[in-house]
Specification:
heterodimer, A: 256 residues, SH3 type barrels, 5-stranded antiparallel sheet, two-stranded antiparallel ribbon, 8 strands, 60% helix, globular, B: 627 residues, alpha+beta, Immunoglobulin-like, 4 domains
Chain lengths: 256, 627
């Protein structure tokens, strides 16, 4: 009887991990989104963008919305904004083939693109999982795992059982639950720790110091994605995808 | 008749001299010396000619005869001749001085260099060697005449021409082909030109030359250069003999590999006529009645040492060797989607133009690339292969935007400096306007457009933008604490239960109040129902049960005295004990009395039970606290 209960609990925990949580579909955002799509298909990209921004202003976002905004900016030849919104969409839709394709097309247009260091398989796997579950998904799954472990512990206290399978199941549940809770906090903190920006100006210098008179190491062109290491007034200390670092003017960039 | 003809010739010559200037200004002067034959019999004569081209008699100081070894001068005063000609509209004039010598002995004779001043400039000829052989070895050839320009006496016609093959009167030195390569050593792919010249003595008249066998240059890529279809013979002096020469073939070859490469001899079959060498024009005319001889001539083979190109070739190098200028341009910088824009690279210069490969052009994938179309325009009239080669890439954009095309690089090897040079095009930016909807776009296997962005996403899953981050939500930490609190409570409760199980007296004491309260409530309910027997039984159970639990006694079966003794042992006062005894008696009496108890009696009994419980509890409290 006890084993059956534990098995059922584990099954529910697995379902909670695999099935993304459903959110209510806000009518205002959906209406503006669909209106933007209609205008995009008619070739009115500026009007489409206005509708998409209206959807964002309603307080909701989605990967599809960011993707379509990237498309509209691309058609308007705003490469920096296109890359920016494609990157935003990728945070929510990390495995979408259409989005990957469009982002690759936009990146191919970037002048003097900085070569990208290869991403480790673990990082790719983590970003995909984090985007699928989100911090709250990790948390729910971790809480469930820990709950199972603690329930088994309570059962152990109450009944005084010392069965090996009981001890092993409890240890596994607590370990898995603990890892999932750690992942939840990591996913929640990541956007604040892993800040990225896109160059929106046509070309800006990468300077060696946060000063307009500082020496320029190289030029960065519209659409280049940068990792933010620090901020100082209107300057950002950034790292390029090839590992080079320097300072850029913050107003010339857009946050992802 | 003869005098009249001579008069007409003289008149015509005089008119020509009167109409043209005596000497063309700026005409180059060349001085050359030659002999009538470099091999003569001991009884033959040798005519030495000193010819000055580009000058008139008035420009030349009369020369002295050259000194000789093995030859004797027959006439100290030279015979002279002046010649005036127009070739391609250019006037040429020349003068010649001739001396005749007689061999003194068999062996090698030498004619020393001679100096002459022309237009106040001194010129000096080369030494000429003449082999004098016994006359018996020269029986087939008559002794050369003394006429100017090495004219020879007319040979006797063969006696039985119909029966026997007529013996050739043409020697190997009288007509031959020489090959003149521009260089004997070259780099791989470097241009080498070879000119095949037919040289023939002035008394030899060739006609209808044709290839006797195929000519090949294995290991070379070759480009034939044009030669004149109706060439005008040019007079030259080679090894002391005067020849006329025409160019048979001119070819540019490019070594395709390194090593020693050999070019086949050029074999030509030609009909030649050895003309009568006489001053008499009629004699010349009759000499042409001799049949033409067919002779086969072959040039020497040419060997070229092909050196490999040095190492360190740039990445863009595809084998261009020579001297080239490169320019690259865009046909336009703004183009609508779907229309073409040309990137044209033009390579001009001298070298292996025909072998040039199109340069690598890594066009952005947004462009559909056609070509390159390659056009080659060669100009071989200068004696070397030069010209222009054009590579045209047509790019058709399939999406809008501004694109920077990669630089187009062209690398060459200059054999003069023996260095590589790379020419790179400047920045080329194409602005593409319009949209891609009107253009048919290819798609990948996944249905995504090639080199353009895919369409919109229709379905959206929404999430609020202002959601509190997990690590900042109080619910997070509450949810984390709750299971731990529950586990702690479980542990505490379990410990409590264990403690009570180990101390039954304490467990009963803790249950005394609740059970007494429960019985009293049931008793009150029985009172309300009007069931006095059951009521008094219940209130008695409440009081005795409470006392039994508080004192940890088995209250059932105790006599009144035993109960009183236990109470007294626990310092319960006498009043309380007496009241208990009275209460128990009342309960027994009412339970077993035939008359029914009233509601007032039952209410009094309930109050007494409560009072007794409180009194017993108060009396036991100090003992328990002390314990």
């Amino acid at each position: 009887m006890m084993r059956r209960w534990i098995v059922h609990t584990m099954l529910w925990m697995g379902l909670a991990v695999l099935v993304p949580s459903a959110h209510a579909q806000p009518d205002a955002a959906r209406t503006a989104f669909e209106a933007g799509n209609v205008r995009y298909e008619a070739g009115a990209y500026d009007a489409a963008l206005a509708r998409y921004r209206q959807a964002l202003d309603s307080g909701y976002a989605s990967g599809a919305l960011y993707h379509n905004m990237g498309n509209a900016y691309f058609r308007l030849d705003s490469l920096g904004q296109a890359v920016r919104y494609y990157e935003k969409a990728r945070l929510l839709l990390p495995t979408d083939r259409r989005l990957e394709h469009n982002l690759a097309i936009a990146r191919s247009r970037v002048t003097d693109a900085v070569p990208r260091l290869p991403t480790s398989p673990w990082a790719t796997w983590w970003h995909r999982l984090a985007a699928r579950l989100g911090a709250w998904g990790f948390f729910a799954a971790g809480l469930l795992g820990c709950g199972v472990g603690l329930a088994l512990a309570a059962h152990r206290i109450w009944t005084g059982t010392r069965a090996p399978w009981h001890r092993r199941t409890m240890a596994v549940a607590l370990l898995v639950g603990g890892l999932l809770l750690a992942a939840a906090f990591a996913a929640s903190l990541e956007p604040r720790l892993d800040r990225r920006v896109v160059v929106l100006a046509e070309a800006i210098p990468l300077r060696e110091a946060a000063d307009d008179g500082a020496a320029s190491a190289r030029m960065l062109y519209e659409g280049t994605v940068l990792d933010v290491l620090a901020a100082q007034d209107d300057w950002l200390r950034v790292r390029l995808s090839n590992g080079a670092t320097g300072w850029v003017a913050a107003p010339a960039t857009g946050a992802i | 008749m003869c005098r009249r003809r001579s008069f007409l010739w003289a008149l015509l010559f005089g008119v020509v001299l009167a109409l043209v200037p005596e000497r063309s200004p700026g005409q180059d002067v060349t001085v050359q010396a030659y002999v009538s034959a470099t091999t003569v019999g001991a009884q033959e004569r040798v005519t030495y000619t000193l010819e000055i081209e580009g000058a008139a008699f008035s420009d030349v100081e009369a020369p002295s005869p050259p000194e000789t070894e093995g030859l004797a001068l027959l006439q100290p005063v030279p015979s002279t001749q002046s010649n005036l000609s127009f070739i391609n509209g250019v006037q040429r004039q020349s003068v010649a001085f001739q001396w005749t010598y007689r061999p003194l002995r068999v062996g090698t004779a030498r004619i020393k260099p001679v100096g002459i001043t022309v237009q106040e400039r001194f010129h000096r000829t080369e030494e000429i060697t003449v082999e004098v052989v016994p006359q018996s070895q020269r029986t087939q050839r008559g002794p050369p005449g003394t006429a100017p320009y090495g004219r020879r006496p007319s040979p006797s016609p063969p006696e039985d021409a119909a029966e026997e093959e007529p013996e050739s009167r043409i020697g190997a030195e009288d007509i031959f082909i020489r090959a003149l390569p521009s260089q004997r050593s070259a780099f791989q792919n470097e241009q080498v030109t070879i000119e095949y010249q037919l040289l023939f003595r002035p008394f030899i008249r060739p006609r209808e030359s044709r290839l006797a066998s195929s000519w090949d240059a294995e290991g070379f890529w070759r480009e034939d250069l044009p030669v004149e279809g109706r060439p005008i013979p040019r007079a030259i002096v080679s090894d002391g003999l005067r020849y006329n020469t025409i160019v048979l073939k001119r070819v540019a070859v490019f070594p395709a590999r390194s090593g020693e490469l050999r070019i086949d001899p050029l074999r030509v079959e030609t009909e030649v006529l050895a003309m009568q060498t006489t001053n008499d024009p009629f004699g010349r005319l009759f000499s042409m009645q001799h049949p033409f001889e067919t002779v086969e001539l072959a040039s020497p083979s040419v060997t070229v040492e092909a050196r490999p190109l040095p190492s360190g070739a740039p990445e863009a190098f595809t084998g261009a060797v020579g001297r080239f200028d490169v320019d690259t341009r865009l046909s336009r910088t703004t183009v609508p989607v779907g229309e073409g824009v040309d990137v044209v690279m033009r390579v001009r210069g001298m070298g292996n133009l025909a072998m040039l490969e199109p340069p690598a052009f890594d066009v952005p994938t947004v462009f559909e690339t056609y070509g390159p179309r390659v056009t080659t325009a060669l100009d071989s009239t200068s004696g070397r292969v030069r010209g222009t080669k054009t590579f045209t890439y047509t790019l058709v954009p399939r999406s809008n935007g501004t694109f920077d095309l990669p630089a187009l690089a062209f690398a060459l090897f200059d054999p003069r400096t023996e260095r590589y040079h790379t020419t790179t095009s400047g920045p080329m930016t194409v602005r593409v306007t319009g949209t891609a909807e009107a253009v048919t776009i290819a798609t990948t296997g996944e249905g995504l457009p090639v080199d353009d962005i895919a369409g919109l996403m229709e379905a959206a899953t929404w999430r609020p933008l202002d959601r509190t981050p997990l690590h900042r939500s109080a619910w997070t930490y509450l949810a984390l604490a709750l299971p731990l609190l529950l586990l702690g409570a479980t542990y505490a409760y379990r410990q409590h239960r264990t403690h009570l199980a180990r101390n039954p007296a304490l467990a009963r004491r803790r249950q005394a109040h609740p059970l007494a309260q429960k019985h009293l409530q049931q008793a009150d309910a029985l009172r309300a129902d009007g069931r006095p027997e059951a009521f008094f039984e219940e209130v008695e159970r409440a009081v005795l049960g409470f006392i039994g639990n508080r004192l940890d006694l088995a209250e059932r079966g105790l006599t009144r005295d035993q109960l009183d003794a236990h109470l007294a042992a626990h310092t319960i006062g006498a009043d309380t004990r007496a009241a208990l005894r009275t209460f128990l008696d009342t309960c027994d009496r009412v339970r077993f009395s035939p008359s029914r108890a009233t509601q007032a009696q039952m209410a009094d009994a309930l109050d007494q039970a409560q009072d007794l419980i409180i009194a017993v509890d108060d009396a036991l409290q100090p003992d328990e606290e002390a314990a």
